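Example record

Each entry pairs one chain with its bound ligand, MTE.
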Amino acid sequence: MAENFISRGFVSKRRVDDAAHKERIPPGQYETRDFPVLSAGPTPQTQLDRWTFSINGEIAEGLKLTWNEFLQLPSESITVDIHCVTKWTKLDTKWKGVAVETLLEKIDLEGNAEIKHLIAYAKGGYTTNIPLTDVLNKNAWVVYEYDGKPLTPEHGGPARLLVPHLYFWKSAKWIESFKLVKEDRPGFWESAGYHNYGDPWKEQRYAGD
Ligand SMILES: Nc1nc2c(c(=O)[nH]1)N[C@H]1C(S)=C(S)[C@@H](COP(=O)(O)O)O[C@H]1N2
Ligand SMILES: [Mo]
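Structure tokens for the complex follow.
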């Protein structure tokens, strides 16, 4: 009797875990344990003493940080699931970086209430657009470590954007600047027929989805 009870409890707990795991894979995605590299162009190499990150756009005063200034900002360690539009999902990826919110605190956003969009600019010309409200509540980071090590160039090092709640093309590698603008403007993939917003849970892969 007791034995039966215990083994039944064990089986049902396992089933719950499997279901919880499956629930983390958005529709049309499959789980991978690799970390695929997807880049539309060559991988740029950047010397840290020449690296800068800027915030500019339709704002009175922007900012420009050196690598050392960037590293002095409060950082966070985060574990998140990432979803590429080519259908792979990778669970529990571990990063360290600065919340976009922390970076934007340095800008007078209240004095610029009409700013509604952030356009991420990467070295090499890649761009992607994100609504400002999507990056304000600890939903996005500029990360410089992956799995406890400096971010490698093929994955966007020295630093990349990480916006895990949207398809991974929004997470611009080799980030150089944010442009804050009033009117939305599609970035690299958004201009090429991909969805303007890209919510993996709504399967917003292409324009019109
Ligand atoms: N600068 C830049 N960022 C980019 C891309 C790119 O081509 N250039 N590709 C995007 C796409 S489509 C994906 S899926 C992810 C891939 O990141 P990974 O190569 O680290 O897996 O980066 C995104 N960020
Ligand atoms: Mo992608």
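Residues 35-40, 84, 122, 124, 126, 155-156, 168-169, 171-174 surround MTE (ligand 1) (CB under 6 Å).
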